[in-house]
């Protein structure tokens, strides 16, 4: 990383600090009602207290678990189904119209149905997250394997590669950029749906904690929970960037 | 063995008479080949024999079916009339001893594999046991002057290097026949000359038969034992030019040779007539 | 030939939805289904028709779409303004980088409890949440699109001494129009999800609340009818936007050769 890039990041972090300081000043001066907008100091102490004495760490772990398991389910199903539909015209003919009907369904609308079918437990949470997060992955994989460079398929044909090898060595690798883009999008969706289902289902995740804190007008706790959700999202995006950089080295080579 | 075959062929060729009577059966044989697609005739009545070890270049105005003939040998396209045979067998499907080099190297290489990985693809396809691959890869990359670039991705290589890599991958199949579809068309003049000489050196050493499509007439004369001139609408063989120029060829001496200039003029006039 | 094949494909595509429908109906009839979670397709259709006839379905639709649309417009406009500013002024973009990257990953629905404290349960909370969700696609896509505007065009606008506003209006906006359309398509999807979520948690009106109400009243037929209706709306909006996108891209393509 170049020196100027680091300098800009430092400057940008400084800007963030200035914003936080201004917020602190405003809170101290009671520009907003402290009931609505707690100052950064109170949010920090709520975070600290919740993490060391309260159950914030356990709730964060629960939420992370929901998100990751749901996301993983969605990834496996999405990539597998996307590859099958992308590679087999027959499977595409049978399955694609049904999926096109299901896809625009807003994932949150499935929550009441999932609650009715599965109750308020873990399986409902995971089912809703997986259902919502599966689409970007499915569409990405499908698009990826379908847009393989035709010349590469000719190369494979000329080399007499069997279909299984064409899928493994040509179709799936060339779909990797699309699959990664799908992973990124579905991570966002998974985090949103994790928060929502936890709000709806109660339980011991962050979503329920935030909603309860909101009902009790404990705004510092709400902000603390929201901050952790944001950090989870950011950590996920960063991990994906690292994965992307590793998997797409060949693209950055030029 | 293949070197000897080639030398034998040369000896047959020198007298310049009755080659057909003495030479062994042709390796690739087009017999009255035609191709109709959707009621349009693309190729009509092409008959052509290509002997083992021969370098044949195909020229002609665009739309005359040069690439289609190449794809028929490859087994990608089946004629709707006549037959294309390889060693007496119809070319129904691609075969490992026929390798192709495409013009668009940028699309024909796997961008997510390194130079070594791209050569490995062909070795995997012919089923070479894994322990033997690294040595073969190193040898092939060195042969094409890519020895120091085994770990580079295609995106980090120049056009000339990428095309060298594609040739290395084709040679990894240990082909009897190399099909080349305007392989040097997208390269700059200097790179093209280097690759022409290297190609001639390699195919002469190994006795590989070459079917080379090009729109560059001088390239055709420089490389070929024989140049096939096609005419369009529908695509058909209009003329054959025997190139009697001495080998090994040389970018200066060969190109300044009176026979080269005479052939160049003849080919130019042929193309002009075929285009009109 | 291809017509025949595509007709066969269409028939294949109908197998699964129609087959599922028939199996569900048959299973419900044979088992004499009386469930609090499932309903026969015919019962769902009936419940949907009743809700449509008494107008409640359309009233709820209007509430949901109204809030979603208001939030969408606010969010996309804010996102575009910020995205264009960040795209044009690199230092501004770099200075705001940490702040934006810290706020962006916050899931929009997580701010619902904050908004409940600030503005209570209601329309404002719904619109604000939707707007928050819709800012990001517009910001990210317009920022990168502005950076990708042909530098020659920017030079042209400099040479013509266009004012900054004229430059945005005459050069930037037309060049990034296709990206804006993509951003709007993404945002519409988000807007509907978020609006329905807010209605389930914080604003007891609209289609989201209608579903929750039906679920709690143990009326699965109505719940599933609303779900299908929401799916239909999502599908129709998507189709509409694809049409719009095709038009805009078509117009851009037609205008491209002219000076």
From TrEMBL, chain A:
Superkingdom field: Bacteria
Alphabetized UniProt keyword annotations: Cell membrane, Membrane, Transmembrane, Transmembrane helix, Transport
Major site of localization recorded for this protein: membrane
Protein name per Swiss-Prot or TrEMBL: ABC transporter permease
Record flagged with keyword Transmembrane helix: yes
GO cellular component labels: plasma membrane
SUPFAM superfamilies noted in UniProt: MetI-like (SSF161098)
Membrane topology designation: Multi-pass membrane protein
Annotated localization: Cell membrane
A Pfam family per the record: BPD_transp_1
Gene3D superfamilies, alphabetized: MetI-like
Lineage per the UniProt record: Bacteria, Pseudomonadati, Pseudomonadota, Alphaproteobacteria, Hyphomicrobiales
Domain ABC transmembrane type-1: 60-244
Annotated transmembrane regions: 6-23, 68-91, 111-135, 222-243
InterPro entries listed in its UniProt record: MetI-like (IPR000515), MetI-like_sf (IPR035906)
Family named by the database record: Belongs to the binding-protein-dependent transport system permease family.
GO BP of this protein: transmembrane transport
Automatic annotation (TrEMBL), chain C:
Matching InterPro entries: MetI-like, MetI-like_sf
Xref: SUPFAM superfamilies: MetI-like (SSF161098)
UniProt domain ABC transmembrane type-1: residue ranges: 61-245
The protein, known as: ABC transmembrane type-1 domain-containing protein
Membrane-crossing segments per the record: 67-90, 102-123, 176-202, 222-245
GO biological process, alphabetically ordered: transmembrane transport
Keyword terms: Cell membrane, Membrane, Transmembrane, Transmembrane helix, Transport
Organism: Chelatococcus reniformis
Family assignment from sequence similarity: Belongs to the binding-protein-dependent transport system permease family.
PANTHER family per UniProt: ALIPHATIC SULFONATES TRANSPORT PERMEASE PROTEIN SSUC-RELATED (PTHR30151:SF38), ALKANE SULFONATE ABC TRANSPORTER-RELATED, MEMBRANE SUBUNIT (PTHR30151)
Origin superkingdom: Bacteria
Membrane topology: Multi-pass membrane protein
Any single Pfam family the record assigns to this protein: BPD_transp_1
GO cellular component terms given for this protein: plasma membrane
Compartments it resides in: Cell membrane
